[in-house]
Design brief:
By secondary structure, this protein is of the alpha+beta class. About 15% of the residues lie in helices and about 30% in strands. It has a single domain, classed as Jelly Rolls. The protein is built from 4 helices and 10 strands; from the N terminus they run βααβααββββββββ. A hairpin with a 2-residue loop joins β6 and β7. The longest helix has 11 residues. The chain starts with 5 loop residues before the first strand and ends in a 21-residue tail after the last strand.
Length: about 190
């Protein structure tokens, strides 16, 4: 599936390891959306890195570096496809959408959203969980990296069972960068406060 709004980057080489880790996460704590009532969308977010600094666990670099090494195939694919010298993973989110859940149509248009590739890796999903992005609709496949164009109107409706995605925000660079600089360019004003 390749359109202006969905780009398929292929199957994850480490999907079994990623899925095993994801299924061990604690989904009982406060979600990003619950922590900030201005946020719409999914109700449970676990393993979020570098958006909420005031919610316990959300700024845990241990969570980030647990998943980051398992994304090398995505990193390599993006570097080759777009001739990037390096890529910077800005955030990793585990997003659980419950059965019957809905993300209303919206556009992500602040912070890094305008420059990052937003890539979904479904951990488990169902054929009745439908993404609509810029007028194109699709169901995603477990274990496959798919970029969605989140800078155009997009929504999700889950008519089936619970769905769990790992979402990666990743930016390509035309220069090499040090891992010590991870996320250093994100302005303090972008962080969501409770």
């Amino acid at each position: 599936m390749i359109t202006d709004n969905f780009i398929d980057y292929g199957e994850s080489e480490n999907f079994d390891k990623i899925k095993e880790l994801a299924l061990q996460e604690d989904f009982s704590r406060k979600s990003m959306r619950e922590a900030n009532s201005a946020q719409c969308c999914t109700r449970t977010v676990v393993g979020l890195f570098n958006i909420l600094e005031d919610v316990p666990g959300f700024m845990d670099k241990g969570v980030f570096f647990k998943y980051y090494p398992l994304l090398q195939d995505l990193v390599d694919t993006l570097k080759e496809k777009y001739n990037y010298k390096s890529v910077e993973v800005l955030s990793l989110l585990l997003v659980k959408m419950e059965a019957g859940g809905e993300i209303p149509e919206h556009i992500d248009n602040n912070g890094w959203y305008d420059i990052a590739h937003r890539v979904h890796l479904p951990i488990y999903t169902n054929k009745e969980c439908v993404f609509t992005v810029g007028g194109d609709s699709a169901t995603l496949t477990e274990g496959y990296f798919v970029e969605i164009n989140n800078t155009v109107p997009h929504s999700v409706r889950n008519y089936g069972e619970d769905r769990l995605h790992l979402i990666i925000d990743i930016v390509g660079r035309e220069y090499e960068f040090s891992e010590g600089l991870l996320n250093s360019f994100v302005p303090d004003g972008f962080y969501i406060k409770e």
